[in-house]
Amino acid sequence: xxxxxxxxxxxxxxxxxxxxxxxxxxxxxxxxxxxxxxxxxxxxxxxxxxxxxxxxxxxxxxxxxxxxxxxxxxxxxxxxxxxxxxxxxxxxxxxxxxxxxxxxxxxxxxxxxxxxxxxxxxxxxxxxxxxxxxxxxxxxxxxxxxxxxxxxxxxxxxxxxxxxxxxxxxxxxxxxxxxxxxxxxxxxxxxxxxxxxxxxxxxxxxxxxxxxxxxxxxxxxxxxxxxxxxxxxxxxxxxxxxxxxxxxxxxxxxxxxxxxxxxxxxxxxxxxxxxxxxxxxxxxxxxxxxxxxxxxxxxxxxxxxxx
Length: 307
Known about the structure:
It is globular and about 50 Å long. It is mainly beta. Strands 4-5-6-7 form a four-stranded antiparallel beta sheet, with no helix packed on it. The chain has no helices and 26 strands. The chain has a domain at 162-294. The protein has strands at residues 2-6, 10-14, 22-23, 35-39, 42-50, 53-57, 65-69, 73-81, 84-91, 103-109, 115-119, 127-133, 136-144, 147-151, 159-160, 170-176, 179-187, 196-200, 208-209, 221-226, 235-239, 247-250, 261-262, 283-286, 291-296, 299-304.
């Protein structure tokens, strides 16, 4: 089962690998899905971030209720702690990297019901990703327009981890499922800055560039995906720009100088559709079956996770 959120057309679900889609947010205003998360103990329980708050559904999106009122929430994550759900999020428009308030929000859904906020940075950039340690819901990583940060107390205090990043303006963040402080991040080269892909080895505090021969200057790298069995080695990177970015792949990401190959040819074998939406993907998601989904401007397509 695959869910697809759009910044203009709401939320969709496919139960047949994208052959057909069911619209889950008919009649909604607004329809800008910024982020989606799931109850780790109940796959039918969905959470979605829209421009006016956090909504949730107990029946796979058939009906919805607003959980939290918030302006432009994003970077949504859900965890189980102390027998109840905890909802984490930040603010900002991730595509434009604007509208953030430098605050991290925590809502104890099913517990105290209180919405708390804690400062992580002085920034107007968006909070893009929130990662929760699967064995410790207080251990968090976030990526944002101010860089990458870690909290060990459920978001109450934060420490910046930006040493070695070519820019503090970050996109998608990934953690190795087996080593939660082993990370990959997409770095957004905005306004003439240098972007690309960066890697942090477990137990270290410094990032290493994996950009190799990627076009990096003034290219908005927003998305990154990797094979969990070869974390950091087999990597896809996506930029939302057609001219100099696109979709790229490397099979030697951890080598001294990774070699990247463009993967956006319309006729390339393996893609589920011939629609060339992978030329500037806003998002990349690797599924457990080894396939890679790309999304752009309300469309999506799927291919095997391979070079």
